[in-house]
């Protein structure tokens, strides 16, 4: 039903509000149906006059109609006919900015990598892209032979350490960067048996998953490591560690967060 409704809506939009594009799609057959439907979806929120204007501008040159040009023309028409709406759209888009980390990639389920999704100001995104390209190029010049995509991924890690990035980009450093001790702080909860450190086998990391000891070793190389006592998730089950106070002590708060994840 939804598919049929969308198809009907696109047909009405094209036939009655975008007649020139309709003609190029049905009679001249110079515009693919799929592209025409995409354009119809873009113009659906325009006024009647604005849609007619977009139709005229798009069809002036039949050979130049593509999705990219259609998006540009329709955005220009929307700005011209309804500047207040265009400004509001921009502000709403900026309000949706953010950075989200997904520890478990959808394609490769392994703690070795994570996905980062970002919505940035267009100018800031361009500057970020330029910085990544500069660092990746510099890494290649210093002898990093990894493919460019991997060097760009490494560049993000370099930019996370401002001093390393500064030294690299200003030429103060002529060596490939190494993990900086104390450059960042992270708490990893490792679930180990009493023999796990001595025997080969996997290691479980809270909220990340199961990984190899080699990966743990790589992550901790050059880093400042603080070893804390084992957190026994069964501690207090028998009531011997109960406390008579409103706020729990740090060990109890940490235990409950790791054990239950949410309020019980």
Brief synopsis:
The chain is mostly helical and 264 residues long. Helix content is 51%, strand content 7%.
Q: What keywords describe this structure?
A:
5 strands; 264 residues; 7% strand; three-stranded antiparallel beta sheet; 11 helices; 51% helix; elongated
Helix-strand makeup class? mainly alpha
Helix content: 40-55%
**Count of beta strands:** 5
Q: Rounded to an integer, what's the Rg over CA atoms?
A: 28 Å
Strand order of the largest sheet: 3-4-5
Q: Biggest β-sheet, characterized?
A: 3 strands, antiparallel
Through-space gap between termini: 42 Å
Shape category: elongated
Mean pLDDT across every amino acid position: 82
What proportion strand? 5-15%
How many H/I helical runs? 11
Low-confidence stretches at least 5 residues in length (pLDDT < 50)? none
Order of helices and strands: HHHHHHEEHHHEEEHH
Structure notes:
- The protein has helices at 2-17, 19-26, 33-43, 48-58, 67-81, 83-95, 122-141, 148-159, 162-170, 213-220, 250-260; strands spanning 98-102, 115-119, 190-191, 203-205, 209-211.
- The longest helix is centred in the middle third of the chain and has 20 residues, at 122-141.
- The protein has eleven helices and five strands.
- Helix 1 packs across helix 2 (19-26) and helix 4 packs antiparallel against helix 5 (67-81).
- Strands 3-4-5 form a three-stranded antiparallel sheet. A two-stranded antiparallel ribbon has the order 1-2.
- It has 264 residues and is mainly alpha-helical.
- 51% of the residues lie in helices and 7% in strands.
């Amino acid at each position: 039903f939804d598919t049929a409704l969308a198809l009907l809506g696109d047909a009405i939009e094209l036939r009655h509000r975008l007649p020139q594009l309709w003609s190029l799609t049905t009679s001249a057959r110079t515009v693919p149906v799929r592209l025409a439907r995409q354009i119809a979806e873009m113009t659906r929120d325009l006024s009647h006059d604005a849609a007619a204007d977009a139709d005229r501008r798009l069809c002036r040159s039949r050979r130049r109609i593509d999705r990219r040009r259609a998006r540009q023309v329709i955005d220009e028409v929307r700005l011209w006919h309804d500047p207040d709406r265009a400004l509001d759209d921009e502000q709403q888009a900026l309000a949706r900015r953010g950075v989200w980390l997904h520890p478990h990639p959808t394609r490769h389920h392994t703690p070795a990598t994570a996905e980062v999704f970002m919505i940035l100001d267009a100018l800031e995104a361009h500057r970020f892209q330029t910085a990544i390209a500069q660092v990746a190029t510099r890494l290649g010049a210093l002898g990093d032979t990894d493919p460019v995509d991997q060097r760009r991924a490494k560049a993000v890690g370099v930019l996370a350490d401002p001093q390393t990035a500064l030294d690299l980009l200003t030429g103060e450093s002529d060596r490939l960067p190494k993990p900086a001790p104390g450059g960042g702080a992270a708490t990893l909860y490792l679930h180990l048996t009493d023999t796990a450190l001595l025997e080969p086998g996997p290691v479980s990391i809270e909220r990340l998953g199961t990984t190899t000891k080699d990966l743990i070793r790589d992550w901790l190389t050059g880093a400042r490591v603080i070893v804390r006592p084992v957190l026994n998730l069964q501690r207090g089950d028998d009531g011997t560690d109960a406390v008579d106070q409103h706020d729990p002590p740090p060990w109890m708060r940490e235990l409950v967060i790791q054990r239950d994840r949410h309020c019980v």
